[in-house]
Fold these 2 entries.
Entry 1:
Amino acid sequence: MKKQIFILAILFSSTFKLLGQNVYEIDATKPGISVSPRLYGIFFEEINHSGEGGLYSEMVFNRDFEMTNIPEGSKMAGNLVRTKNDWQERKIFGNELYGWTFLSKGGAIGDIRLQTIKPLNEKNPSSMRLIVTKTGSRSGVYNSGYWGMNLKKDETYNLSFYARTNNSKKLDVTVSLESPNGNQIYAKKKILNIGGDWHKYQCFLVPNLSDNLGRLSLTINQADTIWLDVVSLFPQKTYKNRPNGLRPDMVQMLIDLKPSFVRFPGGAIVGGMNLDNRIQWKNSIGDISQRKGTMNLWGYYTTNGLGFHEYLQLCEDIKADALWVCNPGFSDNYRKAEYCKPEDVKLYIQEALDALEYALGPVNSEWGSKRAANGHPAPFHLKYIEIGNEASGQLYNENYKQFYSDIKTRYPNLKIICNQRAIPNGKVEIKDDHKYGTPQSFISAFNKYDTTDRKGPEIYVGEYACSRGVGEGNLLAALSDAVFLMGLEKNSDIVTMSSYAPLFFHVSDKAWPVNMIGFDNSKVFGRTSYYVNKMMAENRPDFMLDTRSGTIEDHKSKKWFSISGYDQKTDEVIIKVVNIDSLPQKASFCFRGIKLTGQPAEITELSHKDCNAENSLYNPNVIVPKKNGFTVFNSGFEKEFPPFSFSIIRIKVTKPNYIKATLKDNSHRK
Ligand code: AHR
């Protein structure tokens, strides 16, 4: 037998070497490793306004006037926040009433001030005082949202705000949706008899014109004083029309990635600039007027309107499992971490256990009942918890062990992810690996996991992106990501999960150089890496097939990569090919142990002659996948692949005998 295989191998390599530069034999005589159904996921962090002014549909910028809330013990130094551990972070929105401007027309006089007397509640200590001393034709205040409000004709917007006056005197407030200079009013309502102590007021507004640079104004027609807080404007059309919901076009981009899980809330943000600045999930649930916002370490203020419940709801809505990252008892390692006292570690563990109870506990538990009160009696699909982000060192090891044991005792089925591969005297189930770098480093990582110890923990590549020397995310970056992902797929018996990072960026405020999905207030587009990810997830095979190259390969200058696998649901062989050469490349594929049906093969291809080309907001389709068909012959095929291309070929075959008629379900939700 061995002798026969040897002869076949010689025949294969010598015959096909003559035909083309790249020759492959796909051996389907037996299945290779199973491909993890969890391999392709999403990483979400509040960075680049991915949530505030992005996925989260709130249209008012600085709705709660709490932008001056900086981490405890920190000081402002110019536009920097300096923590007590002497870490500095830029704060770009220096003006305490950022987003708000006094509106004066026809000689109106007055002003707006930040005030802390008689606060709305203790989570919202600041409010805005509007004084009008002389009314002109219009006097009040306006907010232009996140670089303009995207108002759509005939759509309904829900406005709500809290207001109080100095005494029981009542006044009327006119609320309008209008053009950037206020000269055109698209929708207007008068709210009568506002006054006395804090009360919530709300109404619907329906603009009669579309304007994506619109604004919201609140005006009074008498010389008077009024305090405002939590001024909120939401389109009624959010994803699934959920109140306090998400932007449908951005959610759709995520759904199209077919993610098996969503990791949230980060990222470095989990640790924060100091412990006070860590993600505190309890500040992010319930009525929006009761949430406490914070200045985040990416330079802007976050209301926490997109909070723990909304993240879990998003996962459920897009049919992905939830992966929540908890704080391990210290702030971000790369920002002069502040450590909690050893005797306080239990408090941080309790914070994590309470979150788990909120997500998973019965409705009669303390936190499960809050979940039910917030509209979701059934437990959420929280399947993973990661203890810390990019944390290391002796303290991490010690804290991790305590977190692990207390969480496992209460939630034995939960998968626990560790930042380290090994913890002395501790158990690691899944290790989170991060990788950012140049194209070369990504390309040479194709075989990185081939030699990983299979007896060790599973690997989750929780953050990766070819992000250096690739513009803002060009085709070369995407092809390098593709090579790396193919390296994960062929090793997904051990690398079971992955997620690109960061996910979103607002084109008007980007804190991170290369990201996957860009947007402004009305448009959204995918960088080419987005499409690579989408193609990989749409074409995840159930098991790999041995793909032998008949070419002698020079690993250092390798510009050509190929893997293949089998899709049990459709009985197709899936071949993935990356050509990082500036020239077209020919390749020949032959098959062993499998019959082709002779039906046309489907090819999805992404390519451009210039590897520096990029998609952008106004030119989103420079490099997007295109589908085609081509004929394959029964024994194999030869094909030319364009320069700088990523191609996926699906070929119908007859089911091999070793696949049982009843399929094993290989979807991520069993
Ligand atoms: O993805 C951006 C940042 O990179 C993450 O917040 C952090 O974990 C990593 O260093």
Entry 2:
Amino acid sequence: MLNGEHGEIIERMMRLLVRLADIYNADKMIPIGSAQIAGVSYKSIGDPGLEFLEDMAGKGAKVRVLSYLNPAGMDMMQWRALGFSEDFAKKQIRIMDAFQKMGIVVSATCTPYLAGNLPRYREHIAWSESSAVSFANSVIGARTNREGGPSALAAAICGITPNYGLHLDENREPNVLVNVEAKLEYQSDYGALGYTVGKLVKNKIPFFRGIPDNVDTDQLKSLGAAMAASGAVALYHVENVTPDADKVNKNGLEKITITDEDLKETYEKLNTGEDPDIIIIGCPHASIREIRRIADKLQGKKVRKPLWICTSRVIRDLAEKIGLLDVIEKAGANIVADTCMVVAPIEKMGYKTTAVNSGKAANYLPGFCKQNVVFQNIDELVRRAMQ
Ligand code: F3S
């Protein structure tokens, strides 16, 4: 591959992987089961990114493993109705066409594991979206580093990745013990916990004690997403819950304790706005269980402010088939697919204050989208949407 025997594109991509392997002292390349590629929204990659992807696709680049995309900058079907501009849409469509030409499943989502790209325990993968990386490593027990968009694309095209970092068992041991004394009820509480811990531990590997055994995967994805955003946590363990928690060494770790007071402070810190002009749920992209819960709350009611529920197209289609989309649309809300509040250009669509129940979104919205943020639990958000 490196000698160009498989063509120019593979040689270029392989060179990138070898360079990474050299930097991180990897002993070998390992085959991967799947890839997930970030750098999809036109808002993030702009014209240089678009040209790069069209050049790659034009030269015949093809992926060798199951590969999915991170959220794009707009809903690929309903963009006009939701108020996205024609100019933005044209460029975003060209980006998706280039990815499709390369054989990538243009399912644009940060929860690929809910939409058909589910790795197995201990499988090596090359994923880039930080919340998906955290979920795959921690909850599923797959193995991935937090790839950049280009390195994930290179891994997808070559079918391999350098063997270093979180691919190695010895680098997956925890180095900080987090005692959770705070009461966790809503998904936003898990986001607040993740935000708080991420700030404290940065890129360490936390071992959580005190998270209820019946925590669900939606709550875990909120926890991991926020920790990856406020810190750079790519793997965590939860006692009695995550698959490697029993096997890792918990002795002699640095200890921190998180109380109700800590979470209250985080809520206060993340709330920078008061009266939202849009409410957006689904960071990380909503599961069908979350959509059902929201539909139950909206049943027979009417929202007075825009309310978006972001998810993948696969989950949106499922919600449509089982009647949830109908309930949500009758209430005046939308299920928005393929994109999210952070990678969509919401600041250019006239929104100034966005309400969310996600610690990750609350972390990024001020910087990426120039938004004031209302960060609250789902019941509060639905109440605000009715006001
Ligand atoms: Fe996903 Fe966007 Fe949140 S990519 S994790 S919904 S910021």
